[in-house]
Request: fold
Amino acid sequence: MKGHIRQRSKGSWTLWIDLGRDPETGKRQQQTTTVRGTKRDAERELRATLTRLEAGAYVKPAKLTVGEYLEQWLQGYVSSNVGPRTRERYEEIVRSNLIPALGSIPLAALQPQHIQTYYGKALDSGRRDGKGGLSARTVQHYHRVLHEALKHAVKHGTLIRNVAEAVDPPRPEHKEMTTLAPDDVNRLLDAVRDTPYYVPFYTAIYTGLRRSELLALRWFRVDLDLATLSVVETLHQLKNREFVYGQPKSKRGRRLITLSPSLAILLREHKARQEFERMLLGKPLSPNDLVFSTPDGSPLKPDRITEAFTRITRAMGLYGVRFHDLRHTHATLMLWQGIHPKIVSERLGHSSVAITLDTYSHVLPGLQETAALRFEEGLQGISVRVSAEVG
Reply:
């Protein structure tokens, strides 16, 4: 199988590929494809195309637009391979951002420059309300979705290469996480002590559970005698207000967490109150019921928890603190107390201890100073004991 390259104009090349003779008509068949870039880019495309043809994996470029392909990707791959919350997010990014910007371009003609130009515009004036540009982190999310979609096009032979790989997405600035000091933790708990938020906030601080894990916790997953709880489920609410249950982010996300004595006592008291309230409603509490719920047992709305947390912390003078920062606070305080990072990683449900160390690297310098001092103190102590024994 043969092919050659012809330059159409500056930066534009045509690949001519000989497909052999048509078995019915006997006429020679040729396939042409336009490639933008350098001659080396065109040569690379030609080699890749010929390789696919020889392997039987080549699909003739159709008059399919980027928008049409992305819709097919959503309906095909995304709808059956990702969870409801992720699917909702992909659909929003694709239909509200990628298709309006790139959808009219033929899929086979999509070039890195199209994507790079779009990212620049999105950073400058991409907000739908017309009030400026999108953040670098948001545009990076768009890039990941587009890259994933085009990767499947290459995998299925619809495209020769993933042009998103030649694009440089914006790099978001590193943002230091916010954590609460021990005094602020106690202030927060005092502020919500007589509210329905006391027990869930306390549990989040003392376990490091994500909001979705906290709200999906059921009573039969809590062993108050052994003071443990099992994380096996998550709870989210979609934009249509539907509640959806899912699985933790990784296999390590399914985990057993040991409760502190005070939390075990608090949850026991919380369960007793729930049992009394349900008895008054004529609806006995069952093991499958949620630990944190409305009085009738229905799930708490995640956004309500976040809104309440923001309102309370702002009233305390704590600005820029998110509910998720309670998880960071749990991890940071444990590390400062000398808990081994592997134990902290297991409590958080990270897929590896490396993620824990990377996420909380800001804590490590202080820990290393403490470790160095303890090592020296221990070595000196051993030296003194040995000298005394010898003497």
